[in-house]
Design brief:
Layout lengths: L1 H14 L30 H16 L1 E6 L5 E7 L7 E5 L10 H7 L5 E5 L22 H14 L9 E6 L1 H12 L6 E5 L12 H13 L25 H13 L10 H11 L2 H4 L7 E6 L7 H10 L3 E6 L11 H19 L4
Parallel strand pairs: 3-4, 3-5, 5-6, 6-7, 7-8
Antiparallel strand pairs: 1-2, 2-4
Helix pairs in contact: 1-2, 2-3, 4-5, 6-8
Length: 357
């Protein structure tokens, strides 16, 4: 394990351009890093700062590890623990993401005083791929995602005591979190779901037709083939997830420099597993007692608002914030939208930290 993690560390360190300019300040970026009078990172000079400061800080301050997930699948993670923590914050990324993409977010959230815990879901990032073709998005059973997170919480996050444990999840991470919370409703003290995958946006094709196509492909033995409209990773693809071309370009450059994190499109089996999981979310939401803050993006091209609306209405304590003009990746959006989301996260968790249950 140490050898493989060392090789990964060296590859990323080389990709970010060598030694950082300053690694001494873990809790705040320099004044030039921040947006106006805000405490959050800005797009201004971000490509240079991301390579010379943000990613090197991430690599030096992280403790990297791995554990055996469901069916002994190797799950990789990064944690940023601090002795003077205000609590623990678990961060679950979306499909086709790695924790490396969250380096800027970690840099910002480190100012809030939480110990941070991130993992790469099975089948993507640095975790084990599940098919011979590593680009194909696949999971045997959606519940395997949930089982991996439960193992992560019990064996990594809870290795030390925390006054509060919070959860921040994006997209697929939001779907996994929803299934997790309905099964383990008391594991987290408060949750932020950013554009959670509660309903696919199937575009002009009705969802019933899309489901029928997937079922037909599986019926003729094409479980592990790419789903209709899906295929290998395309490095020339345009940005349809945010209005920040700067942050989108950084993510694309990272994949070019660290190709082992590349993931292509979804397989028919993956789509079927997700459709099945999503069907039960609204019905099971009433089991979740912990406070939830749900972010919804009006320009989301990947997920529809209806599933989020139904879930939030059914949960015991859910407040929805709609980001006008935001794409799916709210936490990778242009500065004004991203900073507004981070303000909401900061204030929500601060409020929940002082609350008693």
């Amino acid at each position: 394990m140490r050898k493989s993690l060392c090789l990964m560390f060296c590859a990323v360190w080389a990709a970010c351009g060598g030694a950082p300019t300053d690694l001494s300040n873990q809790t705040s970026g320099g004044k030039a890093d921040r947006l106006g009078g805000s405490s959050w990172s800005s797009e201004r000079d971000l490509p240079e700062r991301w390579g010379s400061q943000i990613l090197p800080r991430f690599m030096q301050n992280a403790t990297f590890g791995e554990f055996a997930g469901v069916n002994a699948t190797r799950i990789r993670y990064a944690k940023f623990e601090r002795e003077d923590e205000q609590g623990a914050l678990v961060i679950l990324n979306g499909r086709n993401e790695s924790y490396l993409k969250y380096a800027e977010l970690v840099d910002d959230l480190s100012t809030l005083g939480y110990s941070l815990y991130l993992l790469d879901h099975r089948g993507q990032g640095f975790s084990d791929r599940l098919l011979a073709d590593p680009q194909k998005g696949y999971v045997d059973d959606f519940d395997d995602y949930v089982g991996d997170v439960k193992l992560f919480v019990e064996t990594v996050v809870k290795q030390r005591a925390h006054d509060k444990i919070f959860l921040l999840a994006h997209s697929l991470g939001g779907a996994i979190s929803t299934a997790y919370l309905e099964r383990y409703p008391t594991d987290f003290d408060a949750i932020v779901l950013s554009a959670p995958l509660h309903e696919f946006n199937t575009g002009k094709i009705p969802e019933s037709v899309a489901r029928g196509l997937i079922d037909s492909e599986i019926l003729i033995g094409h479980d592990t083939d790419y789903a209709p409209t899906q295929g290998p990773y395309d490095p020339s693809a345009t940005n349809d997830v945010s209005h920040s071309d700067v942050r989108f370009a950084i993510s694309r450059t990272l994949k070019a420099k660290v190709p082992q994190i590349i993931l292509g499109g979804s397989t028919n089996h993956w789509m079927k597993q997700c459709f099945t999981a999503l069907d039960g979310f609204a019905a099971g939401a009433s089991a979740i007692a912990a406070p939830i803050l749900l972010f919804q993006a009006t320009d989301d091209q990947l997920v529809r608002a209806g599933g989020q609306d139904a879930f939030c209405a059914a949960a015991q304590s859910c407040r929805k914030v709609v980001f006008q003009g935001a794409g799916h990746e709210i936490l990778q959006e242009r500065d004004d939208l991203r900073s507004a989301a981070l303000d909401q996260i900061r204030d929500f968790f601060a409020e929940q930290r002082s609350a008693t249950h």
